[in-house]
Each structure stands twice: as structure tokens, then as C-alpha cells.
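Module 6 notes. Inverse folding takes a fixed backbone as the condition and produces residue identities as the prediction. Think of it as a translation problem where the source language is geometry and the target language is the twenty amino acids. Below is one complete input and output pair. Work through it position by position during the lab.
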């Protein structure tokens, strides 16, 4: 178990005073039984919003809804939290052979938020992508189990793709990122989700935070950690959901902090909504995650 201190800061600046608007923030760490526990959370907004409410969406992600008053020239959000994350022991691969997964999905009668049925079909941001489907079929050929297929595809993407923060934008289609073999964690995750769905493996897009470690001998830089994305795939009735991070070619363990999951980026985007603007807007965000020795 590791206890983390998490701090997220979001800053907006506007050339001219804004009109009113409304924003949705999906930034709060989740409570995940047996895996992640939220001990403390504080969200500070400046200036104070005209209205602030919280709700939980269909997929179980906590959402902060803020009504922005008119006349803003700046806006700041600061999240401070304490999150306890378990480091699960490596488990035996209990997933079935890939050919048997169709029957297990058909036998599942659950239609709640975590049902595999929600994560099989293409979605708005992750349509059918023939080139990705061919790549996925080649990458997993001969995999003896569904979990091995998940891992093989994630590792193959990691070998094929290059992480490049300047290669894509938030609305770059995943098939375009795949064609150029470059992108960020959002692209890696959405490409892998699309590849798994093409194989008949239910797959979700997961948003959260990643604690990063500095190179040996270098100090930890405050604010250098990041919001992150990875993949959650359904590996059958016994194995359940398996989380894999294709950007880092690893099963998700203790350095990842869950916020939420959905069909694609749209379902768990950290900031959505609208603002009436007359002029340009600039923004920035920083994330700092520190492992704590004590409570």
C-alpha cells in the first residue's frame, strides 16, 4: 500500500472579460474497493463560481459542475487529495482462450456501468479502424489466453509507437495517430481500445494520474507528474477486468491513480463545457504526486 499526496492546479487566462459559462471537471480520484481509497479531498476555485454541484455519471465517475460567472479574466482550480493505492500481487491468468470469450460475453446478463457489453462497439472517438484491426490481429496471433492477447497488443503498440507530445492534439483521430506512429497517452490508449474491440475483447478508456520517478541521482520536480490514460479490458468471467498501460508497456500497479473510465476520451475528459469568449484564452495545468511515509 502507498499513500499519495496529490495536487492538481488548472489556470485560465482570458484576453477580455468572459461571458457566463458552465464547466464539468472529472478530476477527482475514485474510490475503488480493494484497490484505491480516497482519504481526503479539497477543491478550491477562484474566483468563487456562481454555482457548484457534484454528481456521479453513468460510468461511476465523480463530476464537479461549475457555473462560471460573467466578467472573468482569470480562473483557478486547485485540487488537493490524499489517496491510498494498493499494489496488487500478480495473479494467475484465469482468462479463457480468445475463442471462448464470445460465449462468456453472451452469458453476461449485467448491464450496469461496468458491464462488458458497453465496451464492445465502436464509439464516437474510437470508430472501426481497419489498419489498427489488422495490426491487432497480427500482434495477438497465437495468444493462448485473453489476458495474453491484451498484454501482447499493448506491448506491440509500445514497440511500434513513439511518444511525442507535439505530434497530436486532443481531437486527433486515433487512426491518424496510428498512421504516423506517434502520439501521447490518449492516443496509445484509444488505439489499443480500438484494436481490442476489433478482436471482440471489451475495452474501456481509463483516465487518471501517474506518479513518475526522476532519473537516478536527480531531484523530483514538483509539478512534473501528469494526468494519464490507459486501458481496461474484460478478460472473461473469472479474470474480470485487466488494466494495461500501453504508453509504458506494463500492467497497471501502484503508480497509477484512477479517476474514471468510459467508452473513449469523451466520457472521462478532465474538462468539458462551454464559455462565451470575446478574444483568446490561454490555460495551463500541473500535477504533483508525492508518496508519503506516514498518514
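Target side of the pair, the amino acids:
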Amino acid at each position: 500500500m502507498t499513500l499519495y499526496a496529490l495536487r492538481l492546479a488548472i489556470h485560465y487566462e482570458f484576453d477580455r472579460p468572459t461571458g457566463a459559462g458552465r464547466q464539468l471537471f472529472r478530476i477527482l480520484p475514485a474510490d475503488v474497493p480493494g484497490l484505491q481509497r480516497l482519504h481526503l479531498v479539497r477543491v478550491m476555485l477562484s474566483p468563487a463560481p456562481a454555482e457548484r454541484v457534484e454528481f456521479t455519471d453513468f460510468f461511476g465517475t465523480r463530476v464537479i459542475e461549475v457555473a462560471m460567472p460573467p466578467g472573468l479574466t482569470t480562473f483557478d482550480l486547485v485540487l488537493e487529495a490524499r489517496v491510498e493505492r494498493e499494489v496488487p500481487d500478480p495473479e494467475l491468468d484465469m482468462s479463457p482462450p480468445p475463442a471462448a470469450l464470445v460465449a462468456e460475453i453472451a452469458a453476461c446478463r449485467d448491464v450496469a456501468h461496468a458491464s462488458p457489453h458497453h465496451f464492445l462497439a465502436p464509439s464516437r472517438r474510437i470508430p472501426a479502424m481497419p489498419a489498427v484491426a489488422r495490426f491487432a490481429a497480427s500482434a495477438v496471433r497465437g495468444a493462448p489466453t485473453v489476458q495474453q492477447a491484451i498484454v501482447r497488443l499493448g506491448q506491440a503498440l509500445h514497440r511500434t509507437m513513439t511518444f511525442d507530445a507535439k505530434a497530436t492534439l486532443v481531437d486527433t483521430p486515433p487512426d491518424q495517430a496510428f498512421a504516423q506512429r506517434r502520439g501521447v497517452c490518449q492516443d496509445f490508449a484509444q488505439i489499443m481500445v480500438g484494436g481490442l474491440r476489433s478482436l471482440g475483447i471489451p475495452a474501456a478508456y481509463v483516465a487518471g494520474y501517474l506518479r513518475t520517478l526522476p532519473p537516478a541521482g536527480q531531484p523530483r520536480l514538483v509539478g512534473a507528474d501528469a494526468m494519464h490514460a490507459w486501458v481496461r479490458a474484460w478478460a472473461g468471467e473469472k479474470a474480470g477486468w485487466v488494466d494495461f498501460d500501453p504508453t509504458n508497456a506494463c500492467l497497471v500497479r501502484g503508480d497509477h491513480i484512477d479517476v474514471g473510465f468510459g467508452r473513449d476520451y469523451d466520457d472521462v475528459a478532465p474538462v468539458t463545457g462551454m464559455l462565451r469568449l470575446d478574444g483568446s484564452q490561454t490555460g495551463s495545468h500541473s500535477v504533483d504526486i508525492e508518496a508519503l511515509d506516514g498518514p
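Reference fact for the lab report: The radius of gyration is 20 Å.
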